[in-house]
Design goal:
Blueprint (H helix, E strand, L loop, with lengths): L1 H21 L3 E4 L9 E6 L5 E5 L5 E3 L11 E5 L5 E5 L8 E11 L14 E2 L5 E4 L4 E4 L6 E10 L3 E2 L3 E10 L2 E11 L5 E2 L3 E10 L4 E9 L5 E14 L1
Parallel strand pairs: 1-2
Antiparallel strand pairs: 2-3, 3-4, 5-6, 7-8, 7-18, 9-10, 10-17, 11-16, 11-18, 12-15, 13-14, 13-17
Keywords: Signal
InterPro entries: Tumour_necrosis_fac-like_dom
C-alpha cells in the first residue's frame, strides 16, 4: 500500500511538472534569465540581437538579417504545407511591367477618343502582360499577373500655328469605361505659334486578367492638321 502511495505522488509530480513546462518560456544565449514577456522561445546573440517566436500568434522574428552579397544565395519561400523552403533567385519571377514611348500621329479637332497605338520603342514586356500596337490594348494575360499596378502616362500636344487655344486630353479606359482622365490647355494671342501642353495620368490601378485597358486622347485647336503627339507610358506591378 505504501508503495502504491509513493508511485501516485511521483506520477502527480511528473504531471504537474509537464503542465508547467508546456507553458514555459525558453531563453538561449546571452542574458539567459531575461526573456520578452510574449515570447515562447528567444535566442540572443552577444551583441543583443534576438531571434524569437511570439507565444500569442507564433510569428518568427529575426532582428538582424544581413544583406546578401552573393549571387548564389537563395530566396526563402513557404510551400503549400507551410514548410519554409529555399528558392533559387533565378526561379523568382520579376513583377510584370510594360514601358513604351514614341509619337502618336493624329489630327487636331478629333471628334472622338482614338485608341493610342504606338508602333515603336516598346520594351520590358514580361510576366503575363502584353501590348498590341495595332489596337493599343494592354492585356493581363495571366491571372497571376493581375494585381495593383503603378501606371504613369503622358501625352504632349502638337505645336500649332494661327490658333488661340491648344488642348490635349488623356483618358485611361478599362473595358470601354473611363477610369481616369486629365486635360491640358495652352492659350495665346491670335496668329501665334502655340506649343501644346502635357497631360499626365499617374497612380495605382487594379488591373484584372481578361480586361482590355487602353489609353485614348482628344485634341482641339483652330487647325485641322496631322501632327505628332509624343507619348510615354509605364505599367509596373506593385502587389497582388
Amino acid at each position: 500500500m505504501k508503495s502504491i502511495f509513493k508511485k501516485s505522488i511521483i506520477v502527480a509530480a511528473f504531471l504537474f511538472g509537464a503542465s508547467h513546462l508546456s507553458n514555459a518560456q525558453v531563453k538561449i544565449g546571452s542574458s539567459p534569465t531575461t526573456i520578452g514577456a510574449n515570447r515562447n522561445l528567444e535566442v540572443e546573440a552577444g551583441g543583443g540581437q534576438k531571434v524569437y517566436i511570439d507565444k500569442t500568434d507564433g510569428t518568427f522574428t529575426i532582428e538582424n538579417t544581413p544583406a546578401s552579397t552573393n549571387t548564389a544565395d537563395k530566396a526563402i519561400g513557404v510551400d503549400p504545407t507551410g514548410k519554409v523552403i529555399t528558392i533559387s533567385n533565378n526561379a523568382v519571377p520579376s513583377a510584370p511591367h510594360l514601358r513604351f514611348e514614341g509619337d502618336f500621329w493624329t489630327y487636331t479637332n478629333v471628334p472622338s477618343n482614338p485608341t493610342i497605338a504606338i508602333n515603336h520603342n516598346t520594351s520590358l514586356v514580361n510576366g503575363g502582360i502584353t501590348y498590341t500596337p495595332a489596337t493599343g490594348v494592354v492585356s493581363i494575360t495571366s491571372p497571376s499577373a493581375a494585381g495593383v499596378y503603378f501606371m504613369s502616362a503622358s501625352v504632349t500636344g502638337a505645336t500649332q500655328a494661327n490658333t488661340t487655344q491648344n488642348d490635349v486630353c488623356l483618358f485611361f479606359y478599362a473595358d470601354g469605361q473611363s477610369a481616369q482622365s486629365v486635360c491640358s490647355r495652352t492659350t495665346g494671342p491670335s496668329g501665334a505659334i502655340l506649343a501644346g501642353g502635357t497631360a499626365t495620368i499617374s497612380g495605382l490601378f487594379r488591373l484584372n486578367a481578361g480586361v482590355n485597358y487602353t489609353l485614348r486622347i482628344t485634341t482641339a485647336s483652330a487647325n485641322n492638321v496631322l501632327a505628332p503627339y509624343p507619348m510615354a507610358v509605364s505599367f509596373y506591378k506593385m502587389s497582388n
